[in-house]
Fold this sequence. Notes:
Blueprint: E1 5-11, E2 17-23, H1 24-27, E3 30-31, E4 34-35, E5 38-39, E6 51-52, E7 55-60, E8 63-71, H2 75-82, E9 87-91, E10 101-111, E11 114-115
Amino acid sequence: MAGSRKKFQYTNDAGVLYTVTLDESNSEGTIGGVAMFLSRTVQLPDIPRGTKLRYCNAYLLSNPDIKRKFYVGNPAAALQAVNGAQLLAAVYPSAGDAAPVTQAWGITSYRGESSTPPQPINTTSGDTGLIDGDAAAD
C-alpha cells in the first residue's frame, strides 16, 4: 500500500547525491538508529535511468505475515542493515487507528545498488552506404 510521496536525498555507492521520489511512510524509517533516507535540502539531479536503488526486504516482528520492501538511500543505514540491525518503520494504520505506528521489522535480505551504464553514441561509424543524394564520402 503506497501513501504520500516525498522527495528524498539518495547517496549512491560513489558518494554522488541524487533526488528520488518515494513513499514517505516506508522511507522515513531507521535501521539501527540511522535514518534510511535524509531529507532533500537542496536541488539535486534526479537519479540516472538504469539505476536500481539498494533495498532490504523485511517482515513485521509482531506479525510475520506482513512483509515489505524498504529502499535504503543512506549508505550508513545500508551498513547497519548488512550488519543485522533492526529496522523501525511505520505500520500502515487500520480503520480504527488515527496515525501510523512505528514498530520493529526483521530484515530478511539486502540487495545492493546496481546500474546499467549508458551506451555511448557511435560517432566514428562513417557513411551508411545509402544513396542520399550528396556526393560527400560521409
